[in-house]
Amino acid sequence: MKVDDLQWQVDTLGGVLPRLVDDIRERGGLEALVQAAQERADWFCAVGAMRELCAVGEFGRAWAVVEPFAATGWQRAVRVGADVLVRWGRVDQALELTRPEGSKESAADAARDHAEVLVRAGRVEEALGVLVPHLRAGRVLAALVEMTDGLGSDERVLELLAPIAEDFRRDPEQPGVRDLWAVLSAQARVLERSGRVDEAIRLLEADTAARGYGPQNNVEFYAELLARHGRIDELRELADTQRHSAVGPYVTALENAERAGEAETFLRGLIAAGHPGWYDSMLMGLLIRQGRFDEAIKAAEHTFDDLYDGNLLQGALILLADQGQHGKAIGLTEGRSPEFLAENEASWLRSNRWWLMGESGRAREAITEIEALPADEVDDRELTIAWLLAQDGRVEEAMALLRSLPGKRAATDLAELLIRQNRFTEAIAAIPDVPAQREEAQSRQPNAVSPDTGHLGDDPWAAPTAALQE
Questions:
Q1: Are the beta carbons of 38 and 69 closer than 8 angstroms?
Q2: How many CA atoms lie within 13 A of 132 on its CB side?
Q3: Residue 457: which pLDDT band, with cuts at 50, 70 and 90?
Q4: Distance between CA atoms of 153 and 254, rounded to whole angstroms?
Q5: Which tens digit of pLDDT belongs to each residue from 404-443?
């Protein structure tokens, strides 16, 4: 088991995809996941098996699955292993597993994970001591706020955040500070949860007024804070000056308050005034959620033949499909301008049309359309036909076609069909293992650089140990 292979799985969604792991787990395929973790060193299978075993209280087996991964020292596996040990009641072992050792590239992440275990063991002050030297790493700062929620230590957390926030306000562009914009929303979050909502609002209001350009993330948090506490009038004022970040929360707040008519009037006013933004898209979504499908289409149809950014056709197709309006969506794929068709028909437009037809019981008709076209004019022709065959209930035909096709995507589609038949071990075996997938990826990109094994990006599943609890 190599750290490089493990990190590659996370960076590229290699191995068995998380959504397939979830399907296997939900259908009772635990033993297949355990086997894949042990025999294929598949990280996502290991996490899926760990979750299921912990859910039924089999912590010893869960640790046996995760331990070989944690033994590599890969920080993500150390974090998950510590979670299992704590839930098993082996806190000292979890502390030993996560104890930061020496100077290493992921020192901040190691400190965060060790502190998490200390907090869960009730040793909050020790945890804060571990975190303090690393608080200017954004992930650690966020973890400080998350792991102390509800522990009665909000004042202490605010004390730790204060000097960092002051440095950021004084000069957001100074070295070592520019990436700490989240400290302001972190302060506001702690103030809010401790019942000091007005102080949280004043803090972000002052920041927005002093630096009207953002950071946009803080403006978005400010808008959501106002919405959570029913400050709709204040949110409207923010939306008037910070349209990029605050219009969406304002519209959502009005909808939630059963004032959708006001939201519609506001958006139509922005559109009529010619303000730049995504207001046509917001209006279309608002009308579709109200079941006013024809009005929604009319509001956005002036963009449907645009060749560049701002075309809302695909968004309309997806939103209509979500509401079960497949017929209306399919109708929008017809009658497009010759210029638009010349630019787009061979790519996403036809594939969206066939997807909609497959979802609405017209799979055979879609297959007929595909087979009437020259083979070289249809991207992923066989994969699309296989999916449509399955939608039409011809699963064995679909699987036979997929077995004849090379590559991970065909293997994944085949595995998905096998999972539906509860053939879990066969499904996993259909997917190339990590070394084979890496070889395939390398053959497509011979000059590709190996992933940075020290990088800890977001897991497709919630990565912090607290989030793994069930």
A1: no
A2: 13
A3: very low
A4: 35
A5: 999 899 999 999 999 999 999 999 999 999 999 999 888 8
Rounded CA gap, 1 and 69, in Å? Answer: 7
Residue corresponding to tokens 């075996």? 429
Query: Is residue 20 a contact partner of residue 419, using CB atoms and an 8 Å limit?
Result: yes
Convert the pLDDT of each residue in 368-415 to its tens digit. 999 999 988 888 999 999 999 999 999 999 999 999 999 899 999 999
Exposed/middle/buried for 276, CB within 10 Å: 0-12, 13-18, 19+?
exposed
Closest by CA to 214, choosing from 243, 176, 256, 251, is 243
Contact status, residue 16 vs residue 36, Cβ threshold 8 Å:
yes
Contact (CB, 8 A) for 235 and 201:
no
- What are the angstrom distances between the C-alpha of 413 and each of 82, 385, 389, 450? 34, 12, 12, 27
Instruction: Find where tokens 């969206």 sit.
Output: 352
